[in-house]
Amino acid sequence: MPRDNGVMSDPQSHRGERALRFLLVDDDAVDRLAVRRALQQSSLPIEITEAADLEAARAALTEGSFDCLIVDYLIPGSDGQQVIELASSLGSTAPAIVLTGHGDEMLASELMKRGAADYLPKNQVANGQLVRSVVQALRAHELRRREREAREVLQKHAERLHAMVECSERIHAAGGVEQMVAAIAVEALRLFEARAVTVEVEARGDLPAITRVATAVEAGAPVPETPDDIVQALRDSSGQRVGRMVLQGGVFLDALAGSALLGKFARMAVVALENGALLRAATAASQSRDEVLAVVSHDLRSPLGTVSMGAAMLRRSITAPGGRYADDLEVINRISRSCKRMERLIEDLLDASRLDSGAVLVTPRATPAAELVQEALDAATLEAAAGKVTVTAHEVAPLRVMADRDRVLQVFSNLVGNALKFTPAGGAISLGVERVGDLARFTVADTGAGIPPEHLPKLFDRFWKGERSGRHSAGLGLYIARGIVLAHGGQIAAESEPGRGTVFSFTLPLSP
After folding, report:
1. What pLDDT sits at residue 326?
2. What's the angle, vertex CA 150, arms to CA 145 and CA 156, rounded to 5?
3. pLDDT in tens, 288-332
4. What is the pLDDT of residue 6?
C-alpha cells in the first residue's frame, strides 16, 4: 500500500524542499485547468497528477503517494465520496478537498463527516480560496500526524516503563548474585533491544568479580567495545559504584528519555516505585491533553461553522432580489464575533503555554490607575449592553501604578468577561481601585449568582471550569489573569457568597 509523505504545515517551509504532490480528480478539462492555474499561482511548490474518473484515480493512487486530493463531487459513474473511500482503502491519509458546482451546506456537512477535509464551490477556486483551503488542510493533516507520532512515542515509553516492572520481578526472582547478574544482562538486552549487553560487577567483600554477557543470539564471551557503546554505571543506594553495564547496538538509547530509563533500570531497587509514578503521570498527561484537545476542537469548530454558514447566507442575501443591507450587516456581525472568539481562544492557549514555560514578559511603566479602569469600562460597554448588564466605575482613587498597560487590560478583560458570563440581565458590574499600603487594589464586583465555597480554591487553576461555564470556556481566563498579575509582583483573589455576587481583586505596585 502506498504511504503518504509527511508535509509541513506552513507552505513557506516547503521552499527549497520537495514539491507537494496533488491528485486532481475531475472529468471536466476546463475545471482541471482552473484548479491547476490556481495552485500554480500560489507560492506552493507543486506537482499535479490528473485523473478524469475513478479508475484513473485508482491507478494514480496505486502507483504513488500524494499530499492532498482535490476531487470533483460529481464524476462519471461515481462521486467524490467514492474517491475518498478508495484513497483510504489504498492506505492514503492525504486530506481531500471536494469541489462542486454550487454551494450546499447539507452536502458539505455530510462530506466532512465522511472524511473530507474541506468543501469548496468551484466559483471560489480562482479567488485564492482554494489555496487557503489547501494550506489549512495540510496544516490540520500535519497536526494530526504529529499527534499520532506523539501518541506512539508516549505509548512506547509507557510500555517500556511497564516492562521494567516485570524485568525487576524476574531479576529479583533469579536467585543468587551470579544468576541475578545474568538476568540483568538478559532483561536489558530485551528491554533496550540491544545487540549485546555486558554486565560487570566489581569484587566486594566476600563476593568475587562477576561478568555476564547476553547477546541477541545466546550468552557468550564479552563483545569488543566500540565508541558508540552505551556505558551505564551501576551504583548502590549510597551512590558507591559496584559495576557497570555496557549496551551495544541499542535502538532505544538515542534520546535523553532512553538514557533516563537506563538509569532507572540500573537502580533496580527503586525502579518499581519510580515506574508507578511515571506511568500515572504519563496517563494523566495523556488524559489532560485529550480533554484539552476536545475542548479546543469543539470551540474552534463551532465558530468556524458559524463563519461558513454566515458567509453562505451573505452570498445568497446579496444576490437575492430585494436583499436588505440590515440583514447583511447582522450576518457580518455574527461572523466577526465568531472570529473574535477563535482569536481569543488561540491567544489564551498561547498565553497559558507561555505562563507554563515562564516566558510571559511584562514591561511595567508608570500609568494612571484611572485610565486603566476607564479603558476596561469602555471595552466592556458593548458586550454588557447586549446582555442588559450595567457596568460602572466607582471609588477610583487618583493613583499611579507600575503596569504593562496591555497585559493589565487583558486581566480586566478576563475578569469582566467572567463577570458578564454569570451576571443575569438587569444585574450590575462595578470596577474600582483603592490604595492599600504600597499597593493599588483593583476590583471587579458583580451581582451574579456567586461561587460555591468549594470552588474558590480552584478558580485560578489551569483548565478548571465551573459547572455553569459551558463548553465555550477553555478554563484559561482566570489562570492567565493570575499569571499576569504575579508577573507584575501583585496578587489576585476572589471573594464570593452564593446568591450575593462575586468580587475579584488584584494588586499592582504603586509608581515611585
Report:
1. 57
2. 125
3. 655 665 566 556 656 666 676 766 666 566 655 655 555 665 666
4. 36
Measuring CA to CA, how many Å separate 87 from each of 117, 135, 332? 13, 20, 38
Give residue 238's Cα distance to chain centre. 42
The C-alpha cell 504593562 sits at 404
Coil, helix or strand at residue 8: coil
**pLDDT: is 27 or 194 the higher one?**
27
Ramachandran bin of 128, using left for φ above 0, alpha for ψ from -120 to 50, beta for the remaining angles: left
Length, in residues, of the chain: 512
- Neighbouring-strand partners of residue 210: 201
| 322: amino acid identity, one letter | G
pLDDT surpassing 50 at residue 274: no
Predicted local distance difference test score (pLDDT) of residue 101: 75
**Hey, what amino acid is at 364?**
P
Number of Cβ atoms within 10 Å of the Cβ of 138: 23
Q: Which amino acid is at 319?
A: T
Nearest-CA neighbor of 81 among 114, 48, 113, 58?
114
**pLDDT at site 434:** 94
Contact 63, 90 (CB under 8 A): no
144 vs 216 pLDDT, higher one: 144
- CA 67, 69, 74 angle in degrees (round to 5)? 175
The grid coordinates listed for 77 are: 459513474
Which residues neighbour 68 within 8 Å (Cβ) at sequence distance 6 or greater? 20, 21, 22, 23, 94, 95, 96, 97, 134, 137, 138
Q: How sure is the predictor about 144, in pLDDT bands with cuts at 50, 70 and 90? A: confident
| β-strand pairing of 74-75 with 78-79 | antiparallel
Domains of the chain: 11-147 (3.40.50.2300), 174-266 (no CATH), 281-357 (1.10.287.130), 365-509 (3.30.565.10)
C-alpha dihedral sign at 81, 87, 89, 91: negative
Taking alpha carbons only, the member of 304, 288, 382 closest to residue 343 is 304
- Spell out the alpha helix ranges (H) of 267-324: 268-319
Query: In angstroms, how far is CA 334 from the centroid of its own chain?
Result: 26
Contact 411, 506 (CB under 8 A): yes
The gap between the terminal CA atoms of the chain, to the nearest Å, is 71
The predicted-structure confidence for 53-91, as pLDDT tens digits, reads as follows: 999 999 999 998 999 999 988 888 888 888 988 988 898
CA-CA-CA-CA torsion for 296, 300, 302, 306, nearest 10 degrees?
A: 170
pLDDT at residue 367, rounded to an integer: 95
Q: Residue 206, Cβ neighbours under 10 Å: how many?
A: 5
Q: For residues 481 and 502, what is the distance between their CA atoms, to the nearest angstrom?
A: 16
Q: Residue 30 corresponds to which cell in the numbers above?
A: 476546463
